[in-house]
Amino acid sequence: MKTINTMSIELKEHVPTVGDTLTIIQPDDWHVHLRDGAALEAVVADTARHYARAIVMPNLQPPVTTVAHAIQYREAILKAAEKAGVAKGSFEPLMTLYLTNNTSADEIVRVSETPGVQAVKLYPAGATTHSEAGVTDILKYCRVTLDMMQKKGVPLLVHGEVTDPEIDIFDREAVFIDRVMIPLRADFPELKVVFEHITTRDGAHYVRDSQGPIAATITPQHLLYNRNAIFKGGIRPHWYCLPILKRELHRQALVEAATSTSPRFFLGTDSAPHAKGQKEAACGCAGCYNALHAMSLYASAFEQAGQLNRLEAFASTRGPDFYGLPRNTKQMTLKRQNYVVPQYLPFIEGDTLVPLAAGETLTWMVAE
């Protein structure tokens, strides 16, 4: 059984001293897309360079639906990281299975018994990139699976949006809470749930106030930008992700949650690489690439809130505490220095990758 800390009370946290440098425990990324093939080889080092561990999303084509596939994918990630110059043993990918209407309880038992396979991811069918094989009705089709996850301590990682076309895209997270999250957690109160990449005040308050084992990840883009960023001077596809950026009041609520002392909110970049040509298209892909500079973005958000001394708890301690994993022993130092985000990065043959906030100047960077 996977042991997970389910503590929901506020904890007294170590508060680093902030000056022109900030040294924190090395962080982990609790939500990242590494893709596969050439795309994986192009991006994996950006994550492995900064994070000791990363929860890797399973929405490949075909999706990662079995432990056997997850182990195979993990080996490919480690091989790509080593090829990219990452020191062997310095980065640990933590794998997830893609939940479907047909995921069996036996597969959940295998998850609980397999080191390196950490959780199961819920994609409502049609919610985001490569979610076509996702769940159509979790409480109708997945009850036996969920019961086994609850018994075995296997966390459910949730993309929390309804997909009904009549629901406005900016309201889909709030509606998901009412329609899915509340009844799901009422029926499975001991199920460990991570509400991934929350984007609204509704999501932040729900996680903050709920009973039982629940947490949430928050991305740098949702801490720094509101929906105006997508339309500043025209349509800017590299700010388009799902769940989509929301109103300013929601951004402020996320900042309040991330910089609070609640142990329920921690780092998850949702870094999601797409080739420039796939983003700048008539039907552009959803996803922001931030693995290269996410810590600079997070530091900027925390400094703007006057809470830079709380970055370590958000980035480095709350995640492993919730997952029941040891905190890292190595450290990371950020320095107060201008960092210009590159306009583009090498990616797959014939195309490049445009990072989030390309060309902008950030005031913090990781000291390599």
Polypeptide structure, described:
This protein has 368 residues and is an alpha/beta fold. The protein has one domain: Metal-dependent hydrolases (TIM Barrel). Helix content is 33%, strand content 16%. It has twelve helices and 13 strands. The strands form three sheets. The chain has an eight-stranded parallel β-sheet with strand order 2-3-4-5-6-7-8-9. A three-stranded antiparallel β-sheet has the order 1-10-13. The protein has a two-stranded antiparallel ribbon with strand order 11-12. Helix 2 links the parallel strand 3 and strand 4. Helix 1 packs across helix 2, helix 3 packs parallel to helix 5 and helix 7 packs parallel to helix 9. The longest helix is centred in the N-terminal third of the chain and has 17 residues. The protein is globular. About 1% of the residues have low confidence.
What are its keywords?
single chain; 368 residues; alpha/beta; TIM Barrel; eight-stranded parallel sheet; 12 helices; 16% strand
How would the global form be characterised? globular
Structural class: alpha/beta
The number of helical segments is: 12
Examine the coordinates and then state which fold CATH places here, giving the name of the CATH topology: TIM Barrel
Q: Walk across the major sheet and give the strand order.
A: 2-3-4-5-6-7-8-9
CATH class: Alpha Beta
Task: Compute the number of strand runs.
Answer: 13
Rg (CA only): 19 Å
- Helix share, percent: 25-40%
Give the low-confidence spans: 5-9
Write a brief structural summary.
It is built from 12 helices and 13 strands. The chain is of the alpha/beta class and 368 residues long. The protein has an 8-stranded parallel sheet with strand order 2-3-4-5-6-7-8-9. A 3-stranded antiparallel sheet has the order 1-10-13.
